């Protein structure tokens, strides 16, 4: 136990040093990429948080878009500061999510999956139709965030390096909160609902309330991820939040593994790296995604995070037989 | 509002309904019989349209031949994917749906890379012009779609009701365990359903190809429509599927005529969500 803790401590320290040094070591392009990667981390981990109750929500990406639109509109038209638009955008996603939940809570498993797709698509189509969201062209010129304490200082996050650290801080905070939720009793109840909801209901646990809680917490963080993306890209349009993005998210989480907290993190990391390695193939990428998804579902249904569990007994076996030989 | 406009709207509604029914019936069939919620369904529709573009539009085969070829090829492809990737996961609807997402991406990329992404392909209508009945114009292509859809759905109905194989498929859909106790092979029923369902979906794409823009991403909208119709109609309920197709065909036509297409899409989707919320089993009871 002590040794494990030491190892974790060293690992975290190394990771912290690397993450702080990153923007000074990498070129602009890779720093941009890392910022998007952070937003995707929040997105994938919050998606997985909802799946612990068995609800696979394809509305997750449109709800991220809701956060992005909310923050963009508040910052651009009202000139509200970032520290205000960030949580408010999360709240906006949560409120829209709550409206969606009214019909969605009556559905389970596959019906929920399709229902969430349909209702998320309705939300996305409404951005095309309603004037303030800018139609197909979306919203451009989203201001760079700055945090000002009246009378003291104003910190601008216009540059890519300051924005990197802002994103890093928010991502670490979000992941930490979701990690603590994952370790808490609440997640045990979420998982119990996934396994056998009628049994959970029979011992007096309000299944609907807990499903709502999981969905709303996850949706709040998806809104946060949307804000980070919107202010980074400076431009958002309905096309960014369509089914394809939602299916990519699904692939990251399914291939990474959704049984544990680390699964989606592994998934997003692997696919981001893969995307970079295979950048030359450009248009062929979705095909690679598709092949990886099919292979992993057929041969590694618990995802990449279960790989060590499969391999380590094999290595041990080989090691033992090697000793004997 | 004139009589002409009403008649025109009705004709448009009938045409859209028959297309929706043909598009959705295959998904409903495989979903009901084998529990395959194929999210690559829209891509099967896309393949059907591409076969007609390739053989009728480019190679100059006659139209009927191209449509039959599309049914044959897409049906065969359906059997291959049922055997290859859906069968190992059968029983877990969500896993099957997720794995079909992989197929969706693969087909989109392959078609886009082989035949190009640029401008959508145009397919000439086999019979140009339109029938004009007292000021109401009906394009010949619409008449072809309507009559072919009615014919194919009629054939499917006859097959399911009157033949032994058809009865076996219906039995598998009702209760797969009881059916296998009677000596019906569920594997065979699933393969057959997937083959027939895919062929009909390919036919939908083939018949619509002169009327729509043929491109690799045309399946998105088709999938959404098929899902709405199948879920509202009740999974595996073919009668319910056809009735819902008619309902949504008219709903969509009327809203498009008087408002616009985006609102029509939103309304269709919200209507489906509303129905799912109040009647999770769909409008009809389960069973064919």
Quick recap:
Chain A is mainly alpha-helical and 325 residues long. Helix content of chain A is 74%, strand content 3%.
Features of this protein?
heterodimer; A: 325 residues; 2 domains; two-stranded antiparallel sheet; two-stranded antiparallel ribbon; 13 helices; 4 strands; 74% helix; globular; B: 288 residues; mainly alpha; ABC transporter involved in vitamin B12 uptake, BtuC; 2 strands
Please describe what this structure looks like.
The complex is a heterodimer of chains A (325) and B (288). Chain A is mainly alpha-helical. In chain A, 74% of the residues lie in helices and 3% in strands. Chain A has helices at 2-25, 28-51, 60-78, 82-104, 109-129, 160-183, 185-195, 197-202, 207-233, 243-256, 262-277, 285-299, 307-324, and strands spanning 139-140, 146-148, 154-156, 235-236. In chain A, strand 2 and strand 3 (154-156) form a beta hairpin. In chain A, helix 1 packs antiparallel against helix 6. Chain A is globular and about 60 Å long. The model of chain A has no long low-confidence stretch (mean pLDDT 86). Chain B has 288 residues and is mainly α. Chain B has one domain: ABC transporter involved in vitamin B12 uptake, BtuC, CATH 1.10.3470. Chain B has helices at residues 3-34, 41-58, 63-86, 93-115, 140-162, 164-174, 176-181, 186-208, 219-233, 238-258, 261-278, and strands at 130-133, 136-139. A two-stranded antiparallel ribbon of chain B has the order 1-2. The longest helix of chain B has 32 residues, at 3-34. Chain B is globular. Chain B starts with a helix and ends in a 10-residue tail after the last helix. The mean pLDDT of chain B is 85. Classes of the chains: A mainly alpha (325), B mainly alpha (288).
